[in-house]
């Protein structure tokens, strides 16, 4: 497996794939082209034999100078459980550290139990919210009406 | 009118308003909370008597060091034709210049003739696309399947 930086033209390969990888959920609207043009130095692609099998779109917070943010991570369903996600996260942590960022943030949906468990395993801590769902702290309407989110933070040493 | 920087809590006022200001089109999905957390030093709110009447969400390109990007601009329908948009753009141009950015980019939908005319009046130049609609250069599927866009750039001197 090869990890490389995102390039603009990756958008046209990835955007149609995303909804498939997420089992038909409409996810590609969350990932406009701008992320593939303006955050290429903190966003990564995983390839096996030239095929894109995973990606991570993240950025250095522009106004919170100690923080970096992971917006979107996806792994091809046929290539899961092969530590591709882990490698992508580690590349992002490294570039964040190189830029003196020591807090990594991301959010996920409370229904996405796999994602919640995954982030906890990766050392993220769930931030205090304003309600609990199945014992998990959740911030209600965080990303708009009925768009509850679980908020994660990880400190890099 | 007062122009100030965006703050995180503005999201919860603006997000429900956006679809109303756009006449019912679902626009708020294009503006996740992250823009109100991590790009507060290049994003602006226009207020009259404490009421939000306009906003501009923009950022300095993280990987194109001479560029800045305007993601989203909105003005309350009752407050249009009062140069609120112009003031918001000028504030963004100024902060871009202070950060040594000399190219401002943004995109709009080909159906949005008002937006196209507005950007041309503001000194933006339409970039060469790969087809023409009503004589205007358009980039097909730029922001995903059937999401054609008109691409604008403005040079700051």
Notes on the structure:
- The structure is a homodimer of 157-residue chains.
- Chain A is of the alpha+beta class and 157 residues long.
- Chain A folds into two domains: 101 residues, Aminopeptidase; 55 residues, no CATH class.
- Chain A is 26% helix and 31% strand.
- Chain A is built from four helices and nine strands; from the N terminus they run βααβββαβαββββ.
- A seven-stranded mixed sheet of chain A has the order 1-2-3-4-5-9-6, sandwiched between helices.
- In chain A, a hairpin with a 6-residue loop joins strand 3 and strand 4.
- Chain A starts with a strand and ends with a strand.
- The mean pLDDT of chain A is 95.
- Chains A and B meet through helix 1, helix 2 and strand 4 of A and helix 1, helix 2 and strand 4 of B.
- CATH homologous superfamily grouping of the largest domain in chain A: Gcn5-related N-acetyltransferase (GNAT)
| The CATH architecture of the largest domain in chain A | 3-Layer(aba) Sandwich
Largest interface: A-B, 30 and 30 residues
Overall radius of gyration of chain A: 15 Å
Helix content of chain A: 25-40%
Low-confidence stretches of chain A: none
| Widest β-sheet, arrangement of strands of chain A | 1-2-3-4-5-9-6
Task: Label the overall shape of chain A.
Answer: globular
Oligomer: homodimer
The biggest beta sheet of chain A is recorded as:
7 strands, mixed
């Amino acid at each position: 497996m090869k990890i490389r930086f995102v390039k603009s033209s990756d958008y046209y390969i990835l955007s149609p794939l995303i909804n498939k990888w997420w089992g038909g959920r409409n996810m590609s609207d969350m990932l406009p082209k701008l992320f593939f043009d303006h955050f290429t130095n903190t966003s990564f692609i995983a390839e096996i034999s030239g095929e894109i099998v995973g990606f991570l779109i993240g950025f250095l917070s522009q106004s919170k100078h100690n923080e970096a943010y992971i917006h979107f991570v996806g792994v091809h369903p046929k290539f899961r459980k092969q530590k591709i996600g882990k490698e992508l996260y580690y590349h992002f942590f490294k570039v964040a550290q190189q830029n003196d960022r020591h807090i990594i943030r991301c959010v996920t949906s409370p229904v996405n139990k796999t994602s919640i468990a995954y982030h906890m395993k990766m050392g993220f801590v769930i931030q205090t919210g304003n309600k609990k769902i199945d014992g998990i702290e959740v911030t209600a309407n965080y990303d708009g009406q009925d768009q509850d989110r679980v908020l994660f933070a990880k400190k890099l040493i």
